[in-house]
Amino acid sequence: MSTTNTSDRELDEIVRIARAAAAVVMEVYATPFTVELKGPDDPVTRADREANALICRALEAAFPGDAILAEESVPSGEELASRFQKERVFFVDPLDGTREFADRNGEFAVMIGLAVRGRAALGVVVMPTTGEALAGRADAGLAFLEARDGSRRPLAVSSVSAPGDATLIVSRSHRPKLVEPLLARLGITKLVPCGSVGVKIARIATGEVDLYVHGGGGAKLWDSCAPEAVLRAAGGRFTDLGGEPIDYAGPGLKLDRGIIATNGALQDAVVAAARPELG
């Protein structure tokens, strides 16, 4: 359960930056746009690139000296290693759910997360089509949803504790192989399909659904940093498939050991059910 206090100047600034990027995303969304491929099954649009540039400029101005690792401007080699060495590292996904953006189904998000000493500390997830911004400071229990009109309400996860009563939110397009065995072991029958990691975890943070599992394929640290901070601030838990914290200190960007994100009460049962899938 989050606190009712919603005052945090650093968090407010990141909400402002993410909302500005969301406005850019929606400007492109309202026009015909081209979808390119950066690699196999890896789409990108003008919205991704323009939002990426805006966020990086704004973070550099507001938080000089902090490192930034953003999806559309990733450094390589020594520069990447150098950024991971910083105490504070921003992880930016300027348009999480590019496939959903291209399909125009509304399930996409702008995400800015801050890791401090390798742990997700602060996050903002903005849903451009609804105008909602979810924000959280993980270790302070400060988590809120800011509506389009600027009003705020605290975030809190659900209280569901029996796996058989839980609702699992699943990928609309990339359901990992481990989902079916997990459903059988946990007795879960309620599934909700959704695009974007950020939107899925936002729905856990608001109490609409109870858990999410990602096998790790294709996901990067900018997919998890902001949602993790928000979810933990709202009272949930977020680990890899083995139940260990996500390490944001590098050296790689891939989430090779996947994600288990829950309302907290379900975490231990889901981690235990996922253990056979780790090999």
Any descriptors?
7-stranded mixed sheet; 26% strand; alpha+beta; D-Maltodextrin-Binding Protein, domain 2; 32% helix; Inositol_monophosphatase_CS; Fructose-1,6-Bisphosphatase, Chain A, domain 1; globular; 2 domains; 279 residues; 3-stranded antiparallel sheet; metal-binding; single chain; 8 helices; CysQ/Inositol_MonoPase; hydrolase
Describe the structure.
By secondary structure, the chain is α+β, with helices and mostly antiparallel strands. The model has no long low-confidence stretch (mean pLDDT 94). The strands form 4 sheets. A 7-stranded mixed sheet has the order 3-4-5-6-7-8-9, with helices on both faces. The chain folds into 2 domains: 9-154, Fructose-1,6-Bisphosphatase, Chain A, domain 1; 163-278, 3-Layer(aba) Sandwich (D-Maltodextrin-Binding Protein, domain 2), CATH 3.40.190. It has helices at residues 9-29, 46-62, 77-84, 98-103, 179-186, 197-205, 221-233, 267-274, and strands at 36-39, 42-44, 67-70, 88-96, 109-116, 119-127, 132-137, 142-146, 152-154, 167-171, 190-194, 211-214, 237-239, 259-262. The protein is globular.
* Quaternary state of the chains: single chain
Q: What do we call the CATH topology of the largest domain?
A: Fructose-1,6-Bisphosphatase, Chain A, domain 1
Order of helices and strands: HEEHEHEHEEEEEEHEHEHEEH
The main sheet orders its strands as 3-4-5-6-7-8-9
Could you say which structural class the secondary elements and strand pairing correspond to? alpha+beta
Shape descriptor reads globular
DSSP, total strands: 14
Mean pLDDT: 94
Radius of gyration: 17 Å
Q: Architecture of the largest domain, CATH level 2? A: 2-Layer Sandwich
The tally of helices reads: 8
Q: Biggest sheet, open or closed, and with what strands and sense? A: 7 strands, mixed
Strand content: 25-35%
CATH class of the largest domain, please?
Answer: Alpha Beta
Helix content: 25-40%
User: Could you tell me how far the N terminus lies from the C terminus, measured between alpha carbons in angstroms?
Assistant: 35 Å
What are the low-pLDDT stretches, counting only 5+ consecutive residues below 50?
none
Number of domains: 2
The CATH fourth-level homologous superfamily of the largest domain: Fructose-1,6-Bisphosphatase, subunit A, domain 1
